[in-house]
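Tip: read the tokens left to right.
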């Protein structure tokens, strides 16, 4: 982690990494519900963006669309200059995006290190102990304070430790964009603050774009940009 270049650029100098234009998303079963309405968002490298809103407004659905896990009904999504389509979704997802979920989504019978290496395996990289991916996974676990838990099965870890494994896994393939859905929703306040600092440091010092869906006003207040999702569109939050 320490060999990554720091990016202390002004807002106008930071290049755009994600551009969403006119996104619309409607669910029709059992009743028609429009989640996104002509939704626009521009995200630059090094920005941290908090998206808040009431339950049921579609925040998690929005994050899944921005992360190419779900498709909008209409509109376009561009990531690092590439229009996202069915042809390149998996490649963009594996190369450009890192996901952190509230419920961790770890393989409980695998070690912390094996979980962190999953994106490398999906990307068909060698993960033997002499390879770069293995070394990076070890470094990431050290960076999140889990050097002594590296070979523990994740079912033996605490909630905060599991979330730190999830953060390390999200960074395994050196993504440009980190998407986090309530990353500290199930954690105590002290652990939450540690997780928040980890994520925001990645954005500020390492040029990662960070998009967080959260109900936590303290976390939102630490981000460089804050929005509320209201009736399918973003409203700037103070």
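Filled-in amino acids:
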């Amino acid at each position: 982690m320490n060999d990554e270049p720091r990016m202390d650029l002004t807002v106008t100098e930071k290049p755009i990494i994600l551009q969403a234009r006119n996104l619309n998303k409607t669910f029709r079963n059992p009743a028609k519900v429009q989640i996104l309405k002509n939704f626009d968002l521009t995200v630059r490298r090094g920005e941290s963006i908090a998206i808040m809103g009431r339950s049921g407004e579609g925040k998690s659905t929005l994050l899944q669309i921005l992360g190419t896990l779900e498709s909008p009904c209409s509109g376009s999504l561009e990531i690092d200059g590439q229009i996202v389509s069915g042809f390149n979704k998996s490649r963009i997802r594996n190369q450009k995006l890192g996901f952190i979920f509230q419920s961790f989504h770890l393989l409980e019978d695998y070690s912390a290190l094996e979980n962190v290496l999953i994106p490398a395996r999906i990307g068909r990289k060698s993960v033997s102990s002499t390879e770069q991916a293995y070394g990076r996974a070890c470094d990431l676990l050290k960076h999140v304070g889990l050097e002594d838990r590296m070979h523990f099965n994740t079912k033996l870890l605490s909630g905060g430790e599991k979330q730190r494994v999830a953060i390390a896994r999200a960074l395994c393939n050196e993504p440009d964009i980190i998407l986090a859905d309530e990353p500290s929703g199930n954690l105590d306040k002290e652990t939450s603050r540690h997780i928040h600092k980890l994520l925001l440091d990645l954005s500020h010092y390492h040029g990662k774009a960070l998009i967080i869906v959260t109900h936590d006003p303290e976390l939102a207040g630490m981000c460089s940009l804050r929005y509320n999702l209201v009736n399918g569109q973003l409203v700037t939050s103070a």
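The helical segments are 59-66, 89-96, 112-116, 118-122, 132-143, 159-170, 189-206, 217-222. Residues 2-11 have pLDDT under 50 and may be disordered.
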